[in-house]
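Worked Example 4.2. Consider the chain below.
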Amino acid sequence: MLLKAREKQKTYGLDDLDLLLSDVESLPFPDQAFDIVSCRFAFHHFPNPEKALREMKRVCRGKHGACGWCVIGGTWKKSLP
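Applying the procedure from the previous section yields the following structure tokens:
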């Protein structure tokens, strides 16, 4: 996936874009590093989605910067404390 992204980055001249592979449960960024963290169609792949969401929230400024979007079957519903 990163290889394809780097190919597109080169094709479109997106030199100011950094691509990296990291663990969603331990992001390599300081607290409140971003205005928004977005994750689309991936939460159902995470071993611990609650921990991932907490980590996404940690690196966001403000209260409402982390968001996720998944459309999957099942009945898993749980809110963060």
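The CA atoms of residues 34 and 51 lie 18 Å apart. The mean pLDDT is 81. Compare this with Example 4.1 before moving on.
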